[in-house]
Amino acid sequence: MSALGVVAEKKCQRCGACGDSGLGTRDSSPESPAPSSRAIIRIATPEDRKTATDLRLNEEEVRRTVRDRVRQHNLPMKVSDAEWQWDRRKLTIYFTAEQRVDFRALVRDLAGLFRTRIELRQIGARDEAKRLDGIGRCGRQLCIASWLPEGRPVSLSLAKAQGLSLNPVQISGPCGRLLCCLHYEHDFYVQQRKRFPKEGKTVQTSVGSERVVSIDIFRERVTLRADDGATRIVALEQLRL
Questions:
Q1: For the segment 88-130, what is each residue's pLDDT rounded down to a tens digit?
Q2: What is the pLDDT of residue 33?
Q3: Rounded alpha-carbon distances, angstroms, from residue 181 to 105, 155, 194
Q4: Would the CA dihedral through 132, 134, 137, 141 be positive or negative?
């Protein structure tokens, strides 16, 4: 359980899995997967919390051991995280890789080492950031690790629509992918730009023919350049007149 009340409702609406029918329901179309439900057995006891803490501490050591074994097998993969099942009957290893990896020999090695069932699960860069957490360039906790239900694909067109730098290095997060927050204001920019003439377009004004150099959607101003090179800034309402 990750949220309650109004916060849970907002997260559910962003996720979209519940459709328009409200919190706690799911689209019943044949294409949608059946919802999974789990019963709450009881409140965790101090012994349960201690067991969980011990598992988390042991996972750090497990991760280091698995990384050593990956290097020994010379596999092109990066081990991100390790997670014990509560009863230690299963160990899940999360990793990222740029290509398909044949890790069958590694699984046999790890199964013999930890004496349990081993599952190697490949995840993407955003999923890795969600599991490991971190601080973004804004100085706050990563959205994907704090409240975003899933990482949506982000393209350079979102940055272009907002007038941002198209250099991926400048608009990427710690995961190396384009910032998730580029989605947040995209709809606002799209709607506002419809009110303005496009950059590069020639418009007829009281001065004559002028080309639109740039627009400022927040101050509602347009920068124009005449044929003789003279530049001036006019208000959007003035330009419409």
A1: 999 999 999 988 999 999 999 999 999 999 999 999 999 999 9
A2: 47
A3: 40, 12, 22
A4: positive
Domain for residue 170, yes or no? Answer: yes
Express each pLDDT in 134-145 by its tens digit: 999 889 999 999
The residues near 116 (Cβ < 8 Å, ≥ 6 apart) are: 88, 89, 90, 91
Find the CATH number of the domain harbouring 93.
Answer: 3.30.300
Total Cβ atoms within 10 A of residue 197:
17
Residue 35 within any structural domain of the chain: no
Find the domain containing 153 and state its range.
Answer: 127-191
Written as six digits, the tokens of 106 are: 């590694």
How many structural domains does the chain have? Answer: 3
**Cα separation of 227 and 241, whole Å?**
21
Q: Note the pLDDT of residue 59.
A: 93
pLDDT of residue 116: 94
- Both 183 and 200 in one domain: the answer is no
Q: What is the pLDDT of residue 31?
A: 43
Residue 118 lies in a domain: yes
Residues 131 and 55 in one domain: no
Cα 224 to Cα 207: distance, rounded to the nearest angstrom: 10
- Which parts of the chain register pLDDT below 70? 1-2, 14-36, 240-241
**How many residues does this entry show for the chain?**
241
Q: Are both 140 and 169 inside the same structural domain?
A: yes
- Residue 15 region, left (φ>0) first, then alpha (ψ -120 to 50), else beta? alpha
Considering the domain architecture, whether residues 76 and 23 belong to the same structural domain is answered as yes
